Amino acid sequence: KDWSIKNVQDQFRAQFPFLKIEFLKTFPNTKAIHKTKYAMSDDLFKRIPGFINDGKINIYSKQSVLSLENDFKECFGVSAQIFRRSGNIWIETTLTEDWTLEQQNKIGEQICVHRDLQNFFVSQIG
Fold first, then answer.
1. By the 8 A CB rule, do 76 and 55 touch?
2. Could you tell me the pTM of the whole model?
3. Which end of the chain is more exposed for a tag (fewer CB within 10 A), N or C?
């Protein structure tokens, strides 16, 4: 409960550098969302509306995105959203939420490496 959002995000990104995790500021048992949709990195978990428990969850590479998001909701009462890097932008993984974190991260890496190589060759030719 006393951890900041940034603490969790940093640890998550250390394991999955082409993914990021955000936490929504939603009211418990409603679909209402605060004016700022996502919690700020310096926010503490205990200040996110709906936070219910202090505790611990395991995050592992073979876990699906949906499973991880459900774990945050069930264990802590907070809504998490996983994003995958695609070049210079972050895309929601809602259409591929059944993929594992490992799969998502690998696709993000492949897209970024391919894009970086493409940009390198374009700059060398042009």
1. yes
2. 0.81
3. C
Q: How confident is the model at residue 121 (pLDDT cuts 50, 70, 90)?
A: very low
Tell me the backbone φ, ψ of residue 59, rounded to 5 degrees.
-115, 125
pLDDT for 66 beyond 50: yes
**Pairwise CA distance, residues 20 & 2, whole Å:** 20
Residue 32's pLDDT band, with cuts at 50, 70 and 90, is: low
CB atoms < 10 A from the CB of 1, how many? 13
Contact 16, 59 (CB under 8 A): no
- Report DSSP state, residue 38: E
The answer to whether the CB of 82 falls within 8 A of the CB of 71 is no
Length of the chain: 126
Q: Is 119 exposed, middle or buried (0-12, 13-18, 19+ CB in 10 A)?
A: exposed
**Alpha-carbon distance 6 to 40, whole Å?**
8
Reading the block at residue 40, the tokens are 């700020």
Question: Element (H or E) spanning 31, and its range?
Answer: none
